[in-house]
Amino acid sequence: MKMPISKGCFLFVLLALSIALTVSNVAADDCENVWCVANPKASRDAQQKDIDVLCNVMDCSPIKSGGACFEPNTILDHASFVFNTYFKDRACYPARCNFGGDATITKTNPSHGSCTFK
């Protein structure tokens, strides 16, 4: 049994996909010049939870004691490194840098000292 789809619904879906792909491609084209960092206005508790979750699925050794990005030893700095690594590993799609408002995109390279952000 075929389920008919209205023309309006089809056009809405097509428009939504077009916008999503356009926004994603803008970020992907400029991936070398954008970074995903912790939002300073967000809750540190929420950002710590994000770090805990992400470090279960990615390498977080640079933010561990002795790692290149351990200092400064703050949730904000560690979250920035983890958020950016996740973001860059996923082609810089804007939707990959949000984490419920805990992160934001910047054009300022957050690398410092021996801690290099991708």
TrEMBL record:
Every X8 domain range: 34-117
Signal peptide: 1-28
InterPro entries the record matches: X8, X8_dom_prot
Keyword terms of this UniProt record: Signal
Keyword Kinase: no
Superkingdom of the source species: Eukaryota
GO CC term, one of those recorded: plasmodesma
UniProt key word GTP-binding: no
Protein name as catalogued: (wild Malaysian banana) hypothetical protein
Gene source species: Musa acuminata subsp. malaccensis
